[in-house]
Records
---
Amino acid sequence: MKIKITEVSPRDGLQNESKIVSTEEKLLFINKLMESGLEHIEVTSFVRKDRIPQLSDSNELSQLLTDDIKSKSSVLVPNLIGYENALKNGYKEIAIFTAASDSFTKKNINMSIKESIKSFEDISKRALIDGIRIRVYISTVLYCPYEGYINPSKVLETINLLENFLPYEISLGDTIGAGVPSDTEKLLNLLLNKYPSNLFAGHFHDTYGMAIANVAKSIELGIRSFDSSSGGLGGCPYAKGASGNLATEDLLYFLIKSGYETGVSLEKIISASNYIRKILNKDISSKTFQALIPKIEEN
Amino acid sequence: MKIKITEVSPRDGLQNESKIVSTEEKLLFINKLMESGLEHIEVTSFVRKDRIPQLSDSNELSQLLTDDIKSKSSVLVPNLIGYENALKNGYKEIAIFTAASDSFTKKNINMSIKESIKSFEDISKRALIDGIRIRVYISTVLYCPYEGYINPSKVLETINLLENFLPYEISLGDTIGAGVPSDTEKLLNLLLNKYPSNLFAGHFHDTYGMAIANVAKSIELGIRSFDSSSGGLGGCPYAKGASGNLATEDLLYFLIKSGYETGVSLEKIISASNYIRKILNKDISSKTFQALIPKIEEN
């Protein structure tokens, strides 16, 4: 059975690291990631340069990516200007974002959930005409840093608002990594009652070390697509010092050992993480990375 | 539903740390652990002083522990001399050990599995007369560092050899932390066909970040007892730099959030880990510790 991995380290990862990585280093990092066999990678975002300086080189970076890499890439866009930039740079897939908690969208983008989805309507219409695939992130599907536990019905309501968007995939984000498998099970039981399982991807943060258990539960319930970040890159902005994204290494170890197909080389992902680790001068939180890097460096 | 936690940091944890902790510091650490509400703790082992210098103060330490703590403690004993020491020091529970891989027992104690179990027969007879509870560790129940994957039938054979021992609990150890839930499921399906689920505890190492997923699967299959180590203390001797024991913090986070009763305060465990962290001068690998320590230190 094939499991899809969407690698988010160049965007979601680097955006949350304090050090700014040069365009050339990003290019090398992305090339290393692609060499591992990854087929889906979120390479950057087209946002206001002053907002996220870590990704202010998205135009320059995009010009350096090959068509092959671009065909396997998506970019995050916050608005129509970002969408136009994505289109101009030759991407075929964009990602947009909302959340299942109004407090979260209000604090982050000063809109309600409804308003945030409405703000993407123009993009949605354009994407349909331009033949651009849309991936939607929904944050805080289990817990919100401001509201606490999020009732699954709130997530379902949010998804219902997206029906005109025809997203090919909706990534369900446990943004603060607080969820446990029983939470995931309750949510998916509700969603899969109405929507097909191949509409969803699991985006579990590993803040409390629960991500793999949530992935395992999701697979049991029919989900076949997960987001992860090489080396676990990208801390959790809501808990200083804590880990954020699930590490691609840990996800791959779990998937490969469990007998699923991924098409991705664990060794090459570790090598990519090791490259970016040196540039960022930081420790890699992935346990699989820590366990295997001494063996890989020996060879 | 109540889940039992056996805290192994003072023995299994400290034994694998290079720095030797003083008896007074161990006493303070154990007291802090007990204050958290833990009801089962492996406090030390009675082994040859030259073999494991980290635990060479087991007699001195034992004299400082209160009767209340001793009634909730177990000690590891490798032979009859160790057993006599445990008895003399007032313990009511001992732990002995074997493995499901002959290569592992041969490399570690220069005996086959059968020989290792035979070597514990005198202890077993004495314990029955003395009214001492026996807990048995079986290492390498999923993977062996020398043999690789271990067939569940090999674990069953090992357990069958223990039938005269009347252990009240058998702790199933994924010693190198290489197992995934599907491995755990295969093993437990075989064992629970013959033995009751309350005979077993899960002892999952977190080397590749799989421990919580294995715990979750074990609970689904009826296991209600797990070993863990505060702060994840105790590295993996088979993979330098890698984490070993499952952190009690991560286990507790999972259990509490999943609605199980533990009787243990997560905050107090973090406080105990933080105490020993400063003495060992090391980073704590537990993700739950990393996420919560800034909040706890603020208060």
Note: The beta strands of chain B are 4-7, 40-45, 73-76, 93-99, 133-139, 143-144, 148-149, 169-174, 200-204, 225-228.
---
Amino acid sequence: MRSWVPGANEPGCDFPLNNLPYGVFSRAGEAPRCGVAIGDYVLDLAGLEADGHLKVADAPVFDAPYWNEFMEMGAEAWALLRKELVALLQEGSEHRASATEYIILLSEVVLHLPVLVSEFTDFYASRHHATNVGTMFRGTENALQPNWLHIPIGYNGRASSVVVSGTNVRRPWGQLRGEDGPQFGPSARFDYELELGAIVGSPTEGPVTVAEADAAIFGYVLLNDWSARDIQAWEYQPLGPFQAKATATTISPWIVTAEALAGFRKSVPEREVTVLPYLEEPHATLIDIELEVDLERDGVTALTRTNYAEMYWSSAQQLAHHTTSGCAMTPGDVLGSGTVSGPTREARGSMLELSWGGKEPFETHAGPRSFIEDGDTIVLRGHAQGDGFRIGFGECRGTLLPALDDPYVRPK
Amino acid sequence: MRSWVPGANEPGCDFPLNNLPYGVFSRAGEAPRCGVAIGDYVLDLAGLEADGHLKVADAPVFDAPYWNEFMEMGAEAWALLRKELVALLQEGSEHRASATEYIILLSEVVLHLPVLVSEFTDFYASRHHATNVGTMFRGTENALQPNWLHIPIGYNGRASSVVVSGTNVRRPWGQLRGEDGPQFGPSARFDYELELGAIVGSPTEGPVTVAEADAAIFGYVLLNDWSARDIQAWEYQPLGPFQAKATATTISPWIVTAEALAGFRKSVPEREVTVLPYLEEPHATLIDIELEVDLERDGVTALTRTNYAEMYWSSAQQLAHHTTSGCAMTPGDVLGSGTVSGPTREARGSMLELSWGGKEPFETHAGPRSFIEDGDTIVLRGHAQGDGFRIGFGECRGTLLPALDDPYVRPK
């Protein structure tokens, strides 16, 4: 599909007409509002709506700093908006003249969190990642625990920790295992985790099936689940990760809709044990998304090259499991896929795995690394490759700032 | 302190003038709004405010279904409101005539959740409880894990699971360990956990000290952390409890303010190991609150009799630890204390402990129990005992409904 918006038909463009990801943007001095990325531009949906060129509800919904209100309108509204946007932005559109004044260069805007994150849940769904980490934390024999092939294992994270791409992350202090007992100090093993985040768009009440869960997912973002491995190793028994994961979780600013990714579905890998019926795939629920992580410092070093389809459990299966207890999910719930590690070394989705717990430091353009060093910038990217186009996610970027000298003295 | 409001000066009244707990109420057909409990009545703060008898801000804050907006005004505003309410409600008040039309019998109102729960964190801070549960789950040798005496261990829960006293709770389905592999079925070991919930009233940015954390706590509620022990036992390794705790968490409707409880402070028990400085108590941070749990069925059976001062870690210490990573806390954050078990059998705060994992069923007026049975009503109560008065919490009540025959068929 071709668009009249400059850049949209370029090969390698993340935001062709086939994509139409949703975000929240502002220019200096303006209030954040909803927009859609197309080519080198963002289309100002709030402006279109205010001037009567777009109407999805009786009251305005795009003049808001989050997509939650629109998500709550439900799947029919989602499909309708996409249809209208395609009509508006396609080559030869009769609306081109009126729409032209609502496109703004991406280089001129600031991007914000696209959703008000109601709650954040993080999973642990790559067999390769779970095996790698399990081996390091608990040894080969207990690496993959008995429940792992039966349950999409997850834990609740902190919604207040979720920040948008470009936000700097401060190296945290925490309680660490020491030779002479525990110490309180800056984390020395701070890491990234390459994940995909699923955004719940429709509320659930009571348990839902995998098919219903799949339909409730509005879209996907890239997600970096920053992790302090030394804090985690000391704190995580018996109730799971807590402060190790609470410093920050960075997501990419554009929600790539489930509809845009519909043509890239892949089934989960063959089950190694029979899964219970409530977790069976009704149709392909994974997605073929190429994922990469780079270290940007003194040049660009490739860290991870993998694919979301490597996961053992899909977001839809995770969401279905999440509701089994009757747990209500709400629009704005974010589900982290878990680290997307593949079977090869280059497909490892964290430095913990790349350096094998620090035992095998690896080379980068900025020198050897076992974990992230102060000043390092970590960038996640991803796309689904179509025939002559790509459905891209843009960037999920963050730079690690040094720990404070004294965490109880507020930085100016 | 004596009040002119009927019931407030009765011995055994939960809501004397010394208390003044905050809640949200409505009468049939009315919108929920903020009020304060006094004697047998609730004082309608929204009504007082609307008619110009009470003014805490330029715009109305009590005509809201939650206390969050008022909490955000900060500790000075909290102290000022309490002062004004005492002046209004004390015996001999000059405002009695004007205030009289704003008191409504408690028996005529419905009580709602008093806060919009932004996030929910649950801790594990009774040495007795942790030792009991640890022994049952992992054996005597690994009962108390090496980090427990150093870290206020906690995990993130689900805010969407928090409901107000009086809400029925549906026995959940879940994935359970079975003889021939995991099964999906109704939980057979559904339990209560007696806890105190601390309501964060002031936001934090970056790590805060225990003293700062203590000052950020607006007040306390009773909290029943309903738990499916069979789901928990199968799912909790390695990332902690997830669906086992997501069915419901019931809180009492009245927030008893930290100020009302100021005279009942107690220090945490002597440390068994030196704690790190960031967790040291700057002043007494526990509270002498007598807590009890009853089973109401075919009469009343006492289940638990304990005291919040039994805890090893206080809410202030937990909150301080919660912020070490830089994790931002927001008004409406609820921190569960963890099950408040004491050293004696009657002080065990869950059926798991009372029946020792089901091995020692105990007698009730409704027959023997190991866990909660369908139709059982669990009621938590608590109060701090003053000289001739009590600071009471009211009730935290819930009845267990039977599991659905098929969780994927929505109940009418």
Note: Residues 128 and 137 of chain A are 14 Å apart (CA to CA).
